[in-house]
Amino acid sequence: MLVALPSLRAFARSLAHSPDQADDLVQDTIVRALAKIETFQPGTNMGAWLFTILRNLFYSHHRRAKHEVADSDGSYAGQLRTAPDQGARCDVQDLRKALAKLSPENREALILIGAEGLTYGEAAQVCGVTIGTIKSRVHRGRVHLADLLAITDADELGPDRVMQAALQPVM
Fold first, then answer.
1. What are the distances in angstroms from CA 153 to CA 36, 117, 156, 162, 164?
2. Residue 65: its pLDDT value, please?
3. Which of 93, 127, 130, 145 fits a 20 to 30 Å CA distance from 137?
4. pLDDT by residue (tens digit) across 115-150?
């Protein structure tokens, strides 16, 4: 489980868009996994099992959040910051903003395949869909992400491995 923590945090961050929420989500995932460790089948992919738990927790929290009033006291607005001028930092922020505009299904498929390095089969298992559905979601996500970032040529991609993995097959 400890080996999967960085990947779980990255996936949670891509879903939650907040470091604090992502950390809480990862913590809840580990607590849930430890409580249900007897349901893990030895010989299967522990990472995929943990991603499934994290994804299910995220959607459970997301469904509950629909009934809450967002930022009623202005505390969120008070935490907003201006992005630094460094180019790489801006590229990452642009990528995060573009990822946030994707549908949750396309975003999670793209992150699981492009950033986390799961196979299509493992990602399909995490999301509870067929491999063909995952492939379609990844393709649609890549195309939409390239459109959002106005990338039309592979030479426009930065040196960032995650950006290249997410977009390269579209070019």
1. 46, 23, 6, 16, 12
2. 67
3. 93
4. 888 899 999 998 999 999 999 999 998 888 888 887
Task: Please state, in angstroms and rounded to a whole number, the distance separating the CA atoms of residues 61 and 21.
Answer: 10
CA 113/CA 134 separation, integer angstroms: 9
Query: In terms of domains, do 61 and 90 share one?
Result: no
Q: Tokens in use for 73?
A: 């006291």
Q: What is the pTM of this model?
A: 0.49
Q: How far is CA 86 from CA 14, 82, 93, 146, 164, in A?
A: 21, 12, 11, 22, 19
Q: With beta carbons less than 8 A apart as the criterion, state whether 131 and 120 touch.
A: yes
Q: Are residues 37 and 114 in the same domain?
A: no
Q: Do residue 8 and residue 58 come from a single domain?
A: yes
Per residue in 147-164, pLDDT (tens digit) is 888 777 655 555 555 555
108 within a domain of the structure (yes/no): yes
CB 48 within 8 Å of CB 118: yes
The end-to-end CA distance of the chain, in Å, is 36
Q: Report pLDDT for 28.
A: 92
